[in-house]
Amino acid sequence: MAHLLMIAPAPVIEVGDRLRLDVKFVEGMRLQQAHWPSRMTCLLRRGAPSIPFGRDYDRADLPFDLRILDPQETLQPRHLTGADLVYAGGDDFHCLGLTDQLSPGQKIVYVIEYTPETRLQIVNLDRNRGLVSRLKGRLWLMRQERKRQRAFRAAQGLQSNGYPAHDLYGPMNRDALLYLDGRMTPDLFATETELAAREAHRAAGGPLRLIFSGRLETMKGAQDLVPVARRLAERGVDFTLDIFGTGSLEAEITAGIATLADPQRVRLHKAVDFETELVPFTRRNADIFLGCHRQSDPSCTYIEAMGCGVAVASYDNRMWQRLNAEAQAGWGTPLGQPYALADRIASVARDRDQISSRARNAWAFSQTHGFLPEFRRRMEHLARIAGITPPAS
Q1: Backbone phi, then psi, for 260, in 5-degree steps?
Q2: Among the CATH numbers 3.40.50.1820, 3.40.50.2000, 3.40.190.10, 3.10.50.40, which is that of 4-180+371-386?
Q3: Domain map (residue ranges) of the chain
């Protein structure tokens, strides 16, 4: 049996004899363990100040073995002892030297999401960093990127979340897999009845219902939400916009909503539970997902909104360009131009049949890339590299 060691970015807090862990992380590990023939080990780092959706667990109740490191503890060969296959995050700079730490016979597979372009965009969009800090950040990223590419070339496998990472890093590795991450399980996808109800709403001339969900941060483009709404109102579009999320721009967005000619069109909600609140709301009350993301991270929000039967209007970052070319699920506009994005939405608002067509394309594409099929492909990839047969699912 191949022993799998996973080095994950999930938070952990020691509470006496118990461990506080993110509930979705534990349930995800439970599923991964079910797809692996022997008990897995997970390595996490302490240091998280809090875990918003956490729960306390006894070690004996976890479906995997857990080892905990200090926040900046350097990974050494002793941390990898007993592992036949190491599954490590390529976005985590702590993991980039692991190919030099492997013992004979040990293998490693990296998983990656961000590209250098996205990392630089995150640094440049950070309002809390001055010019000198940004320059230092860019130099540090360049040094880490050289290590990352060297590690990917030496690894036995690579899994890339999203088209940008796969296009850049995939050719560097002998066994690269593309996947589209998301949380949509079969019970979460929109139903035909729900799609038909929204089509009837649009055909009857009801308000165009926009939705945004995510962190209210500059890297997610949340600063552009109110400008888009203001422009839509100026263009005479009958619309509503529901914003779900929290973040550093929350007060700024709240103040911006108050300056609109009709503030009631835009509603700011707190972050809500994905499965029990956000997905049901989206399936009943949304026509278009408003994507203001300026960076090219894989953003599972796209594939999740699409699974709810919602078309997408987004800036043409590298992820959305490729995803929309494959799925024909919406529309794209130039990066960082909220008025251009609003103008495109105003244009499609006059063609309700086009919205319905793109929404159905989105729904069909997302179902072929739901959580379960994508997850199985990843676990089968790991098993093949390890030279084992995964358990029957």
Answers
A1: -70, 150
A2: 3.40.50.2000
A3: 4-180+371-386, 186-368
